[in-house]
Structures are given as structure tokens and as C-alpha cells.
Amino acid sequence: MLDLAGDLHRWMEQGRAFAVATVVAVGGSAPRGPGAALAVDSEGTVIGSVSGGCVEGAVYDLCVQALQHGETVVERFGYSDEDAFAVGLTCGGIIDVMVTPVGPDAPGRAVLRSALSAAVRDEPAALARVVRGPADLLGTALLVRPGEAVGEPSRPSRARSYEGGLGGHPELDRTVAGEARAMLDAGRTGTIELSADGSRCPGGLTLLVESSVPPPRLIVFGAMDFAAALVRVGKLLGYHVTVCDARPVFATTSRFPEADDVVVDWPHRYLRRTATDARTVLCVLTHDAKFDVPLLEAALRMPAAFVGALGSRRTHADRERRLREAGLSDEELARLRSPIGLDLGARTPEETALSIAAEIIAVQRGGTGAPLTGSGRPIHHEEEVRDAATGSGPPDTEHRTDANVPAELALVAGHAPRRPCGP
Predict the structure, then answer these.
(1) Which residue of 21, 43, 140, 304 has the lowest C-beta tally within 10 Å?
(2) 422 falls within a domain
(3) Contact call for residues 55 and 75 (beta carbons, < 8 A)
(4) Does the model's pTM come out above 0.85?
(5) 361 and 226 in one domain?
(6) For residue 420, is it within any domain?
(7) Spatial separation of the C-alpha atoms in residues 233 and 227, rounded to whole Å
(8) What value does the mean pLDDT take over residues 159-168?
């Protein structure tokens, strides 16, 4: 539901009653993953989506019913062999959707308000909600922020590290807070399973943890027309976009009004002093060795998600030679995506920007960049996503069947790594 934070926070501030439907489990070729949401207010206004259109009408009706009856429910939607035109995901997938009413006086409204406020302000936070378990716990919520130690019974003087709670079970609250914080640190949204007593042995409770983290950064080096188009595409994809160029006559906010930041500095100097992380995308469009080489020398030694550079194959060969002379290894050079972009036959700045964005998505999501027509591959990938920085993929982020996952929540995307049983 945090993907609807802007609208839901406004509804909260206006005192509106609403019901929010959240995808809590997926299987097969489901179009949306856990955390995707649709909400309906008391006037019938609808926002969001849980399936890309397949079951939106039925979910809308569930939200209206939840507003009328005030009860949280979990409903399964899937393809029906007997009736392909019945309500369901005709693409063959399965989704479980939890519908929660949020009235003006709802017990969990304050926790949801805090979670939405954090998301709107781009502050990291994780919202954990019970999606399977006793009826009195279904939909209860707990909010965790980073950098907070989780309290222990043996150290009662420590401040409580979370907001909200799961039905008055302190040990369960502490365990969930610890698990949710670990998922927040990894930037993951997914499920965790616990016993009702708070132990980490599966049996009784499944919780959806939604991590809200600041948007990833896209840093575009080179203030030219291709950069302006890439800024627009980057914003559409949800990036915090920065344009950097050493030439003040070109690096101006009037030329890049959609950019979050426009910086006048030598690219390699700016990269070394600015904040980056493993989600950062670096696009080098300067097309000039005096800028490119020192910049890429620094970029390829950082844990960025994607490092790409514009230029012809001849330019790339010369650039690679200079980088080798600067001491970069074969492994470091292998991370460079150059010439940047997928082969779309692009000609205009806008087409080139789309080509670059397509490669960024393919690298991060494990796509091939090939047409889906006639490929025979699943449209929604079920395999492990590769990490652009290391070439490896984090465990447990794919859609898969796990023998330890209850049948009704099998094939959950982002299922949290399992820890040994115990408190």
C-alpha cells in the first residue's frame, strides 16, 4: 500500500474513511507483486491497481463491502479452467489480496498514518501487517524505522523501537520488529512467518513487510540534449535524478527543469563527494575522454547498480584502453555497459533515452531485451534477478515454491530468508 502513499496520506489528513486492498502473495504469471495496492474511499473514488486490470472490479467490490462491515478479509484470485471468463486472472496467475477498512477511528489508523507520512517524506520505514493468522490479529500493523535497536526483555530500560503492535503480544512485537528491520536494511518487501508466541518457527502467522526507502538515484553526467530526455524518462521510472556537468553555461535548471538537482562540477569530483549506494544508476554522456576516464575510473570501483557510457564502438575501445592504463581490472571493466542502451534503432534524443532506460531495466530485472513475441519465456520472470554490481543474485527474491511456505501463500515474491527456529 505504500506505493499509494501520496494519495492515501492526503485521504488520512482529510479524515476520509477508505479500504485498501494489498497483494500479499502471488504465484505463476501474476502481473503485480506483494505490496501492490488498490484503495477505495467512502465516496467510491478508486486509486491504484492490484492486477493490471484482471480483477480490479471484484477487488473494488470487496473494498466497498469492507467499508460497510468493518472487517479485514483475505481473498484469493486465480485462473479458472472451468470458466475462463469468470472473475480471475486469465493470464494464469494467482494472487492473494488482503482488504483492510481504515475508518476515522480505526485502531490501526495512527500506525498507517505514520507509515504513509514516512513514505511521502522519502524516509525509510518498514510496515509489517499480519496477513494470515487468528482473526483478531489479521490486519494489525507495526512500523519500524532504521537505526533503532529492538528492545529485549532483559533490558527493559531500552526505548521501544517500533510503533503500533500486534494485539498486545510484546514478544511477538519485538521479534517482528527485528525481522522487519532486517528487511528494511535490505530494501525488501516480502513475507515472514512466525509462531504466535514470537518464535521464528513457522506456524500460525504470516506477515507482509513493506519496505519504503528513498528513491534510487540516477546521475546523468553531461548536460546535453540526450541528457534532457533521459532526465524525463528517469523521473517517470521513479528515480531521483541529478545532472552534472563542469560547464556552467550548459548545466542550468532552465535547461533541465525536471531534474531534482543540477550540479556544476567536474564529474569525477562530484561522484566522489556525493552519496551513492548499490541502487544508484550512473549514465556517462559526456563523450569526452578528459571527463569520461577519471569519472569511469571512480564509478567502476563503486557498488552502483548500473554504469553506462555513451559513444561509438571506436570511442568505447579507446575509453577501455585508457581505463586499463589507469589500472582497472578486467572484472571492473566488465561492469561497464558501453555503448549504452539496447538496439532499438534509436535516432532522436527521446528514442535514445528510452533505449538507455530499457537496458537499465533489463539489467536490474534480469531481462534479455529480446521481443516477447515467440520467445516462449514467462512474461513475469520467476528466476533469480541478477545484481548488476556483482553478477550474483540475492537469495529468496524470486517467485518460487517453498516446502515451508503454507500452500495458501506459496510462490511469494520476496519471501524473507529463513532463520533458525527460536526466539
Answers:
(1) 43
(2) no
(3) no
(4) no
(5) yes
(6) no
(7) 10
(8) 78
